[in-house]
Amino acid sequence: MHNKLMYLGIFMLLLTCLATNINAQGVSVDNGRLFYKGVPGEREVQEITLTNPTNEKALFQLSFQDWKRDTYGVKNYSEPGTLKHSCATWASVNTTSVELPPMGEKTISIEMAPPANISPADGVFNAMLFIRQIKDPYARVATGGNLQSSISATFQIGVHLYYIHPSLQQQELAIKGFQFEGEKDKASSKFMIKLENVGETVVDGNIKLELTHADSGKEYRPYDKHPVSAAFMPNDVRFVTINVPDDIPAGKYSALAIVDIGASHELQMAVIDVEIPKK
User: Fold this and answer.
1) Is the pLDDT of residue 13 over 50?
2) How far is 181 from 191, CA to CA, in rounded Å?
3) What percent of the chain has a predicted confidence (pLDDT) above 70?
4) Are 209 and 272 in contact, with CB atoms under 8 Å apart?
5) Is 120 helix (H, G, I), strand (E, B) or coil?
6) Quick check: 134 pLDDT over 90?
7) 264: CATH
8) Rounded CA gap, 102 and 97, in Å?
9) Measured distance CA(35)–CA(204) in Å, rounded
């Protein structure tokens, strides 16, 4: 891995996350990830609730796409059914358009119908359900003194869909590397941990950092309350950045990375000696 990594700043109105609730400009979805584990050849239906707490009517269009993360966690999108582990063509919704009145909500049913010949060896499949808000096509807006109709996308919410064969259960996230990229100042210094999902199914990793000062022995645990989180498909390899908090004094430290994937699994750990620079 190169000593210096390039980071991309992505500014777009696409909101996808691991949290249970996804919120965009007031409108929210109560579940950002759906896991289907039905028997191949059988249909399984799950529901999400779209809520509009605003005082204006909201219109939405629904569609599916393929997606895959790169080694830095950035999602790349493709047409539905084009990626190897896509389940986009197996999924369907009970409606492709939704109109929510002010302070209204609507339940959307999402069906998954995996083919009967899917086996555990095929791995995990995924797709994204996009819920795109659009402007009212019948709304009349003033443009240059003239009234014109308007229909343009304003933002979108992504709901992750996974199909996991019911026999796939093993979860394991392995640390493949841990290093410190110390620059001339603390603001640009960072830890980098390389993780690989060596299990059978989707796994979420919560990463914490413990720093022990070499001289004083004082311990710092800046990520105990808010761990760095990352989700992994099977065989995913990811470089996860852990920034150095501003309140960590300069000096030599023993740095311990801790990866937690749940109470029923052993913690994964890695330790290195580092020197954190001044501001």
Assistant:
1) no
2) 6
3) 84
4) no
5) helix
6) no
7) 2.60.40.2360
8) 16
9) 13
Domain ends where: 144, 163, 182? Answer: 163
Q: Is the dihedral of CA 263, 258, 226, 224 positive or negative?
A: positive
**Number of Cβ atoms within 10 Å of the Cβ of 277:** 16
Helix (H) / strand (E) containing 223: none
Domain that holds residue 34: 14-163
Domain endpoint, select from 163, 188, 214: 163
Handedness of CA 79, 81, 86, 87 (dihedral sign): positive
pLDDT of residue 15: 37
Q: Is the pLDDT confidence value at 177 over 70?
A: yes
Pair 177, 157 in one domain:
no
CA nearest to 69, candidates 239, 268, 206, 241: 239
For all residues of the chain together, what is the average pLDDT?
87
H-type alpha helices, the chain? none
pLDDT at 235 over 90: yes
The encoded tokens of residue 132 equal 């795109």
Closest CA to 232 of 114, 71, 20, 9: 71
Closest CA to 133 of 106, 152, 149, 150: 152
